[in-house]
Fold this sequence. Notes:
This protein is of the alpha/beta class. It contains eight helices and nine strands. Strand 4 (86-89), helix 4 and strand 5 (135-140) form a beta-alpha-beta unit.
Amino acid sequence: MGRFDGKVAVVTGGAKGIGRAAVEAFAREGAAVVAADVDKTAAQALVGGIKKARGRALAVKADVSRIRDAEKIAQEAVKAFGGIDILVNNAGIQTYGTVVDTPEETWDKTINVNQKGIFLVSKFCVPEIIKRGGGAVVNVASVQGLASQPNVVAYTSTKGAIIAMTRTMALDHAPHNIRVNCVCPGSVDTPMLRWAAEVFVPEDPEGAVVDWGKMHPLGRVAKAEEIAQVILFLASSDASFMTGASVVVDGGLIIGI
Ligand code: NAD
């Protein structure tokens, strides 16, 4: 018996990184999972592996910042698996810059993917969760929505917004028996973090990941699976009295001064 037997979970940005780890964990624990991602090849490869292991999964090529793609995610999930119980709004992009040097296109893209994407995908998936009599939404924010660092003004704006959205979504949908929570990870070893290491420390990206890990009191960056496990907890009945919460999963990063 899996914790999510009979449940249908949609994970955006499900092809790589934290989303991928969540897709794999949901499938292992009995859910039928939709991996929605702009990277169709990676999503299909992931789903192929899950099906080989007798799991139930579907890859949907979708850009969460486009309304028609967001609608397609919900439609395909319902067509394949009969409904939606769990939505994980995980898709996100990392961008760098101050208000002075961030190009307007970068600002717009960051807001559109990280923040508007949650609005759009929820717009179509939440009504399906309501039809099932309730369920859970987990949004992926960041410690950068709670604390900050220089040079990430667009990214950090979206992460603060996700924490605020989580609270109001929780209030709006509590009457529908839908719990809405978010996770705020510290640094996580994913393609996003590896890309940042290559860009900022091209001479020693591996060393950069180790150094960034040392900034966390636990002395390392997280594995994607460690964030996925908290996402699954929030989506499960183990978290049945939690809603509107921002759960920090950062190895102690922001507790110091
Ligand atoms: P990643 O770049 O490794 O993976 C993100 C996935 O999202 C990829 O498969 C990518 O193709 C997909 N994606 C990107 N834009 C998309 C779009 N418009 N529509 C659909 N899919 C899209 O990133 P990650 O590190 O796994 O990050 C996942 C989430 O966790 C993001 O919201 C990120 O901001 C957040 N987060 C990451 C870290 C970290 O250190 N890695 C820390 C805190 C928060």
